[in-house]
Structures are given as C-alpha cells and as structure tokens.
Write a structure and sequence with these properties.
The protein is built from three helices and 13 strands; from the N terminus they run ββαββββαβββββββα.
Length: 269
Amino acid sequence: MNAAYIVGSFDAAELAFLLFFGFFVALVFYLNRESRREGYPLEEEETGKVLPGSLFDGDKKSFQLPNGRGTYVPEDVERDDINVPGVQAFKAAGAPWVPTGDAMKDGMGPAAFANRAKYPDVTFDGRPRIVPIADSHELIVSPQDPQLIGWPVVGADGANAGKVTDIWVDQAEHLIRYLEVETNSGKKVLAPMAVAVVHGNSLLGKVLPTTNHDEPKFVEIDAITAAQFEDVPALETAGIITRYEEDRIQAYFGGGYMYATPERSEAWI
C-alpha cells in the first residue's frame, strides 16, 4: 500500500493545496471586510442615497477607550456636514471649491476641522492634558525665559490684537501649546504657540548681540489679522479645552494663512 494516499486517490499534496486555497479565500474576505469598517455602505455624493452593500461590507466595530470612556463606534458619532459653503470654480468633478462666506469660520480648505470628541484629551493617569500653567502639575516657565503674560499681541496687519493673559501647557509633553489672549474687546481666546513669534531683547536671560536694548517686547501672530482675533472659536468651559475645540482653533489659525487677507488666497504666479 502506498503511504502517500490517505483515502483512495486523495493524497496529502491535494489536501495541502485545498487548505491553502480555502485559507486564502477566507483571508481576502476578512481583509476586505476589515478595510470597510468606516465609510461604508457608500452613498451618492449629490443625493445622499445609500448604495447597496456587498459581501465585503463589515459590521460596526467598537473600540474600548481608556479612562472609563466606554466604547466608540465610528458611525455613532456626529457626522460631518456635507453642505459645503462654497461653489465649484468650474463644472467638473474635481474642480476646486471657492468659498462663498467666511472660509475661516466655515472650515474651508486649510481651515477644515473634524468633529472630534467633545471632552478634553487626558494624560495616562486621567488628568486633563492641556491646562493653564497655574493648574498644571508644577510646570513653570524658566526664570531665564520670557514670561509672556502681559505682553502685547500683534496680528498679521501689524495692529494690536490684545495682550497675553495666560499660558496653556501640555502636561504630558511639557510644552507650551497655547497662549491665552485677551482681545481689545475683553474676549479671551486661545492662540496656538506654533504660530506665535516672540520678539524682545530678553531671550534666554541675556541680550542677544543682534538685538537692540530698546527693542519692544511683543508676541507676533501672523496667521490672522488683529480684528480676526474676535472670531476665534471660544471655549465652552473656562480652563478646559476639548478635542473638538482644539481642532476648531487650530483650523481657524491654519486657515488664516490662506484666507486672512485677500492677497493670501491669490496665485503666486
């Protein structure tokens, strides 16, 4: 008797091939279903009509989040608004959109934002991650560095936008994330530190060789004009910034580099 045979003429090589073929087909189904957890079933762009699904469409997937937040299913969150406040430059599917209102407020182009969760980002031990420096875990600005509180803030047009009233720090990264600015009308808003430039003759505790002793001390934020500070998205709760508010603020200032002045949105050539 030939030891290669298992049952009649069905041999080990054929069994291995069939097992591999079945595994490969199952793998293709699995990977395609996993790749369609979010954004499916498809919808028509103009009407919003849901298109028929397929065998490759996966079920909703829940994610267990830390700090008692429970589970998160992508389709259960608030969906983005598809009513774009703009018109296409010309009749074509890929034509660019031209804003019809205030692009920075409406979230057009570089000012676009996501509907992130409306609770603050937290550290590994559950504390709010980004807080005013007085509420942080013993974080301070080095005495050798500019303290910034009380310094005037200047916008892209060179006009005074207000003054710095507080510093918001990242307790996980030990970085300055935002400067709290009190505008000329008394409104308090946050400006990302990434778009701020500190001017003055006192840097790192000494006068730099290239600076003038009489150089004024101020913070320049050239992303937006002084008047546009009044429309920066405000915080719903004092002393707390949510992930949604972070995205709105970052998007507003980011959009300013294209939409703050008419010249910025024009072609360079």
